Amino acid sequence: MAFDPRQTLRDAGVLSSSTRPEIEEAFATLTREETDLLVSLKSRLPAVLPEVMAHSGDGQWTTPEVEAHDLDAAASCLCGAWSGSGSGAN
Q1: Which one of 3, 18, 32, 52 has the fewest beta carbons within 10 angstroms of its own beta carbon?
Q2: CA atoms of 57 and 59, how far apart (whole Å)
Q3: pLDDT means per 10 residues in the chain (90 residues)?
Q4: What is the domain partition of the chain in residue ranges?
């Protein structure tokens, strides 16, 4: 029987029935070692990153909120200052 990382992750509770198909497909190419790592992290993450997991609702990741910033790249670029080619005044 061939190794199926998605089934292993489902059995371990890492993937659930509500996981989107495109996310499950991304896990299809994992090696056994990578799959084992994800399974072992499942129980460790809440202890290591409690503030992250507190915002994940029922333990499932939600779509992250994105905050857009309007930046004037030319005004905020300090390329000359970092490279030493300019004064950095611009």
Answers
A1: 18
A2: 5
A3: 89 86 89 92 75 60 62 64 56
A4: 1-60
